């Protein structure tokens, strides 16, 4: 029977998208959604095909997981009934408009951040989007996701980089939102609603983004610290520097690199961008702030974002990835329970075959913490036992008592119940559900982490 | 004009919540609330209520909602799109008494304020700690943070620092049925959507913000400015493009055109700009002191390459203030040229500025109207100001037609109908120029999520089906102008 269903779903999409727009994946391909192989991966070639695909799914009530490049599709779809459709925008990779002197670019959502970066670098420009992960991540995926990277400190959140976008809603309406200009207050700001919505309101097919001129200097200065407390002190000192930093992060343990002594328990990194003269002054201040907390290193040949990308890699590959929001002044208080939890979880995982490594990253200027467990070699991503779920649940309760808030970025299916405990207030939830109905009346879209 | 009828029982209920002195019904006193800064539109509210707290706002809104009575939140009334106009028998809920800075939290670089807090007061209270509140609308000494949230206000320094939405991190909101909810906040990760981002710029249609959390910015170490004088407006616009393309990031890039210069120089605000010039460009940098001279020199070279005949650099804060004077006093000075001023607002891609300015001036000439331009050139945010006399009805008709053509010119160039003033009543009929019907319908559906009864600032932002609610006001506006 399953074959029949799959055949008919694939057939419907083949009619819409022709054969090269449809993939019927086998179990070992990267489109697997939480261990479930989708019935079809739709690869529409343009906005119209995206709209037609969503209209069909809307009419038939087929669950759709919006996806970018499909390196790893995480979605709460495994338990949905009916055929499962993954809709990837990977073929929408055209640069629609690029006028360097306007410092803006409009491109298809399937363009990878790496390709986009290359094409604007030749014009002396860059895009301030740095979600954790490889350069293969798509523009649409980076905007639909909620993982802003360390550059948040210097250039603002992902939503601040977006001038406009095209969203195809869950019922197939093509909505051209915002525009291509840097200041625009015409109508309600639906762009902000869509950025970070994880595909739950529709599929982003195109986006117009703000670009920045490449700075004369883009460099990173680091201080390895022998204790996490020392790292926190260095972080606080650098956060108090009265100049804007492009990024400021604490990593514990430090990402593996030859630059960092093996004994270091934490690493604080500050990224500085600007004109040569201004960067020198800012670097002086950061060095001074760091100097009483360890040996300050200015790695030769380490480009501004390299170290942050290295650390971001483990966020991308995490089995569990959780963001914890706290006021910067409360970050230290939140860190204790998190380290306690990770210690326990790591001990538990080491007792099994394979091992997991845990990490905590802290944004120096916002106080946001991310923590997680890396995927162990023999870890298939599933499942951890009841005890570990209860430990995480208890951690959540402890953090919430401290006034912190949590959001699961990556989490195994068996932990979804724990993440559900961290929801927003009932008023906010009600508004969110009603907004979802506006964009996706049949409720076919499944939140994805592209 | 007489205020709309309102039942005595409702007035009593409102008085019980905010006190007798918190409800205004006296027609003389209601005159103040008939319009915002865009005085072409006038409509008296049914009453004005002056709550002091979130709880009072919630109680007032509940009372009004129970009677199906519309309401409009109002800050200082400095808006320029008729957004605070009370139509459809609405009651104005003014935030005048909610003007406290609740907290300046230096450690976490944020402040919490009541919505009636005057924009510049927040900076005044933050400066002793080495911080300021970055969005700086021209009316910052009068406009309120609540109004800035509603309009997503900009200002000259938004070129570098960004507009209001970048700085608002959390909101306490009274929804149109009186429920109090909290959106976002520093350290809040759990909201499923960016409801703060959605609320900012919603022009009072989603409820009333009663507490606002904002990010504070460290005061830059130093600032430096230059004034470049041009014989052609287009050359000044090209200099702006050249400066941006060169990779420089000034804090502000502002153009004042010849018409405006002459108005300023013949007023009490004279700033020493040459009256035979056709444009003056103010370029300001701020940041680390060491690099400012270099950046200023690079900007000067861009200006000279585009034909600047003179470049003046400010050596001190006083000189910098003097360079800015002509820009900052422009609107005040225009009163000398004509009794009435229509301040337009649109944004175009920066590279299209020279062509669009040329088209705007051509439209002005064709309709035989005086047009003066003062604008945030670095953002491509134009403010063509049409000078006229409202008593001349024939001229008024030309103003309206020219204004519409100017909007179309900006849209044709890839721009938008408002960069910072908002849509209000003034531009809702232009929304169709930039958005499809399905986008407008989606906006209306999102509005209904917050306000199913349509009571929160009705008749604003969206055209079409809700137009009937404002019809009376528009007819009245025509009669009054």
Characterise this structure.
The complex is a heterodimer of chains A (450) and B (481). Chain A is α+β, with helices and mostly antiparallel strands and 450 residues long. Chain A folds into four domains: 2-89, Uridine Diphospho-n-acetylenolpyruvylglucosamine Reductase, domain 2 (2-Layer Sandwich); 95-213, Uridine Diphospho-n-acetylenolpyruvylglucosamine Reductase, domain 3, CATH 3.30.465.10; 217-310, 2-Layer Sandwich (Alpha-Beta Plaits), CATH 3.30.70; 317-411, Alpha-Beta Plaits. Chain A has helices spanning 2-17, 47-60, 113-121, 139-144, 152-155, 190-194, 228-239, 276-291, 306-316, 331-350, 386-401, 416-420, 426-439; strands at 22-23, 40-42, 64-67, 74-75, 85-88, 95-99, 104-108, 125-126, 162-169, 174-178, 202-210, 212-213, 217-225, 247-252, 266-274, 318-325, 358-363, 369-374, 405-410, 448-449. Chain A has a seven-stranded antiparallel β-sheet, with helices on both faces. In chain A, strand 17 (358-363) and strand 18 (369-374) form a beta hairpin. In chain A, helix 10 (331-350) packs antiparallel against helix 11. In chain A, 56% of the residues are buried. Chain B has 481 residues and is an alpha+beta fold. Chain B is 37% helix and 20% strand. Chain B contains 18 helices and 20 strands. The radius of gyration of chain B is 22 Å and the shape is globular. Classes of the chains: A alpha+beta (450), B alpha+beta (481).
């Amino acid at each position: 029977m399953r074959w029949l269903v799959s055949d008919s779903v694939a057939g419907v999409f083949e009619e819409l998208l022709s054969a090269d727009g449809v993939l019927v994946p086998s179990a070992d391909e990267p489109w697997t959604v939480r261990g479930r192989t989708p019935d079809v991966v739709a690869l529409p070639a343009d906005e119209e095909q995206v709209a037609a695909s969503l209209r069909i799914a809307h009419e038939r009530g087929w669950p759709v997981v919006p996806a970018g490049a499909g390196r790893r599709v995480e979605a709460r779809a495994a338990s949905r009934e009916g055929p499962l459709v993954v809709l990837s925008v990977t073929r929408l990779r055209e640069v629609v408009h690029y006028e360097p002197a306007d410092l803006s670019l409009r491109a298809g959502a399937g363009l990878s951040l790496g390709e986009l970066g290359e094409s604007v670098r030749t014009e002396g420009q860059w895009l301030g989007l740095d979600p954790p992960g490889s350069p293969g991540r798509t523009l649409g995926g980076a905007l639909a996701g909620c993982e802003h990277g360390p550059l948040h400190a210097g250039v603002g959140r992902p939503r601040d980089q977006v001038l406009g976008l095209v969203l195809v809603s869950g019922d197939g309406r093509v909505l051209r939102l915002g525009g291509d200009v840097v200041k625009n207050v015409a109508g309600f700001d639906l762009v902000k609603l869509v950025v970070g919505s994880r595909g739950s309101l529709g599929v982003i097919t195109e986006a117009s983004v703000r670009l920045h001129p490449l700075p004369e200097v883009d460099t990173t200065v680091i201080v390895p610290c022998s204790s996490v407390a020392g790292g926190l002190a260095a972080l606080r000192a650098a956060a108090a520097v009265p100049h804007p930093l492009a990024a400021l992060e604490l990593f514990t343990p430090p990402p593996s690199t030859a630059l960092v002594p093996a004994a270091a328990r934490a690493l604080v990194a500050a990224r500085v961008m600007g004109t040569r003269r201004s960067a020198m002054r800012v670097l002086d201040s950061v060095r001074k702030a760091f100097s009483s907390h360890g040996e300050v290193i200015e790695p030769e040949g380490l480009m501004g974002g390299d170290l942050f990308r290295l650390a971001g890699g483990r966020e991308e590959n995490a089995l569990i990835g959780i963001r914890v929001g706290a006021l910067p002044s409360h970050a230290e208080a939140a860190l204790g329970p998190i380290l306690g939890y990770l210690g326990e979880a790591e001990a538990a995982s080491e007792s099994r075959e394979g091992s997991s490594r845990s990490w905590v990253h802290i944004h120096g200027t916002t106080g946001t913490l991310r923590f997680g467990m890396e995927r162990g070699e023999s870890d298939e991503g599933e499942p951890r036992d009841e005890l570990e779920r209860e430990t995480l649940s208890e951690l959540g309760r402890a953090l919430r008592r401290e006034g912190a808030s949590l959001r699961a970025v990556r989490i195994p299916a068996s932990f979804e119940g724990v993440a559900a405990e961290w929801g927003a207030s009932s008023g906010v939830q009600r508004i969110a559900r009603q907004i979802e109905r506006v964009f996706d009346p049949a409720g076919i879209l499944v939140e994805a982490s592209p | 004009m007489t205020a709309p009828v309102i039942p005595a029982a409702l007035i009593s209920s409102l008085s019980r919540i905010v006190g007798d002195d918190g409800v205004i019904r006296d027609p003389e006193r209601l005159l103040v609330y008939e319009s915002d800064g865009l005085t072409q539109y006038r409509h008296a509210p049914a009453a004005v209520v002056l709550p002091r707290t979130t709880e009072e706002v919630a109680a007032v809104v509940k009372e009004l909602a129970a009677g199906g009575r519309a309401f409009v939140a109002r800050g200082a009334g400095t808006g320029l799109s008729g957004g605070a106009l009370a139509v459809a028998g609405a009651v104005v809920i003014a935030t005048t008494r909610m003007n406290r800075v609740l907290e300046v939290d230096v450690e976490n670089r944020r402040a919490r304020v009541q919505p009636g807090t005057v924009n510049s007061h927040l900076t005044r209270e933050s400066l002793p700690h080495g911080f300021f509140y970055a969005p700086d609308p021209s009316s910052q000494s009068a406009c309120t943070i609540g109004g800035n949230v509603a309009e997503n206000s900009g200002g000259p320094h938004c070129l570098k620092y960004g507009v209001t939405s970048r700085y608002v991190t959390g909101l306490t909101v009274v929804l149109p049925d009186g429920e109090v909810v909290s959106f976002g906040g520093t350290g809040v990760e759990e909201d499923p959507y960016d409801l703060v981002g959605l609320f900012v710029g919603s022009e009072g249609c989603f409820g009333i913000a009663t507490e606002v959390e904002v990010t504070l910015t460290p005061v830059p170490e130093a600032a430096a400015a230059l004034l470049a004088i041009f014989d052609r407006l287009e050359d000044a616009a090209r200099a702006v493009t050249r400066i941006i393309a060169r990779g420089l990031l000034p804090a502000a890039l502002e153009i004042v055109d010849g018409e405006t210069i002459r108005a300023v120089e013949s007023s009490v605000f004279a700033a020493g700009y040459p009256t035979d010039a056709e444009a003056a460009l103010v370029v300001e940098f701020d940041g680390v002191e060491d690099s400012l001279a270099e950046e200023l020199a690079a900007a000067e070279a861009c200006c000279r390459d585009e034909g600047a005949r003179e470049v003046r650099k400010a050596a001190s804060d006083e000189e910098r203030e003097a360079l800015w004077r002509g820009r900052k006093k422009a609107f005040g000075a225009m009163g000398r040229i004509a009794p009435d001023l229509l301040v337009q607002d649109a944004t175009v891609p920066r590279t299209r500025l020279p062509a669009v300015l040329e088209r705007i001036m051509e439209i002005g000439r064709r309709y035989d109207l005086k047009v003066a331009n003062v604008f945030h050139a670095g953002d491509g945010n134009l403010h063509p100001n049409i000078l006229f006399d409202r008593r001349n009805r024939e001229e008024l008709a030309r103003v309206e037609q020219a204004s519409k053509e100017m909007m179309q010119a900006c849209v044709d160039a890839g721009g938008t109908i408002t960069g910072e003033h908002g849509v209000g009543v003034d531009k809702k009929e232009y929304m169709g120029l930039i958005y499809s019907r399905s986008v407008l319908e989606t906006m209306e559906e999102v509005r209904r999520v917050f306000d199913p009864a349509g009571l929160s600032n009705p008749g604003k932002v969206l055209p079409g089906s809700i137009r009937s609610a404002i019809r009376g006001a528009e007819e009245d506006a025509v009669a009054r102008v």
